[in-house]
Give the backbone structure.
Amino acid sequence: MARSASLFACSSCGHESPKWHGRCPGCGEWNTLVEETRSPGPADGAGRSRSARALKPVALGEVQAPRVERLRTGIGELDRVLGGGVVPGSLVLIGGSPGIGKSTLTSGALGNLAAAGRSVLYVSGEESAAQVKLRAQRLGPAALTVPIVAETDLDSVLATIEAERPEVCVVDSVQVLYDPALSGSPGSVGQVREVAGRLMRVAKERSVAVILVGHVTKEGSIAGPRVLEHLVDCVLSFEGERERTYRTLRSLKNRFGSTSEVGVFEMNEHGLVEVEDASARFAGEATRAPGSVVLCAMEGSRPLLVEVQALVAPSELVPPRRVANGVDRNRLALVLAVLARHGGAALGGSDVFVSVAGGVRVDEPGADLAIALALASAARGTELGGEQPLAAFGELGLTGELRHVGHADRRIAEARKFGLTNVLHPGERLSTLRRALAAAGARSAPARAA
Ligand code: TYD
Ligand code: MG
């Protein structure tokens, strides 16, 4: 083999280079290249066929595709994000930062599956069986019926899966399993790739659904695992702030369903509890204080009411602070610019803080109007709306116009459901930000024809 034994691999995207670089040529991240020594082994030789033979292509219409029944985990929010349950033989990656609740979620799911008569297996590489038991005790009797092995050796884990043939197997986490035949340390790109690749082969051959738990690095990419994202069928991301109780589960990739679904959970002393009526929780906490607006957001196929809060204060810094929690910083910058240019509220000398209450993240253009109204209200110190909090949604164009966003009727219906009748949204009468500000009573500059 003419390849050198030493390689540098990016721990973020998996890019390989014979030379070290400060910045990864693949993904542009800094200081992510780490040296890996490769022993020529299955990683390099796997999948290379020795005797190639021509295959007979088949028309797609004639391909046999038996309808498979999905395995419901009994956790409605998880099932929905997966697209209706776990597909047998699929490989699912659940990523999230440490302590967010990945082990709690997967333990609960396996417990429910076991209670429904499914064969399951929990492979714990991070915690001892006793530690996992302590958690399961809090989750209830079903979680205690789950069979567990505490092991980090990949070959032993694969042999156990072959012997037990569970329908669903959780591997917690993919970064601690290792193949002794490879020289890289557990969690290195080579190891993670090998571990996931071999688990995938078992998943497909034996029709075992494998749920891989993966830790996310500070930068937000699942460690090692952008390498894994193309390999697995589903990538779920478990997010939230550790200090807050709300958690959101969203799908970043799903070969068997939509990627825009979001599940909302709350962590309490009995584990993760699904928050089915998230709107009621979030909107119920909304106040009529200056700087507060209820946003009618869409999270995948469901409407969700969340409170957007803004604070504007005189700044001593140049440039002033712009802090965005739960909304994209670039969106905030755009809203501030449009507000300054077309809304008469120039906040260039103020610190600006915007946050979505409850620790939820909204990533859609439909949030623009609510953010702008909250900022204008905060800047002026006046409350919006009448008896009830004001609700809003709509996208801001660069020329100060309000643009339509999808599912307007469902957003309005959701607001009505929770008693919010004062909803500002793009329409014939409300075509610009200026008009919206006037309608909300938050105009901070003298009226001019819009
Ligand atoms: P864990 O699932 O271990 O997180 P991860 O596997 O993502 O690292 O648990 C996360 C936190 O949740 C932990 O700090 C303790 C807390 N927790 C509860 O508040 N209630 C519970 O019932 C359980 C099981 C955990
Ligand atoms: Mg864990």
Summary: The two ends are 72 Å apart (CA to CA). The chain has a mean pLDDT of 86. The longest helix spans residues 189-206.
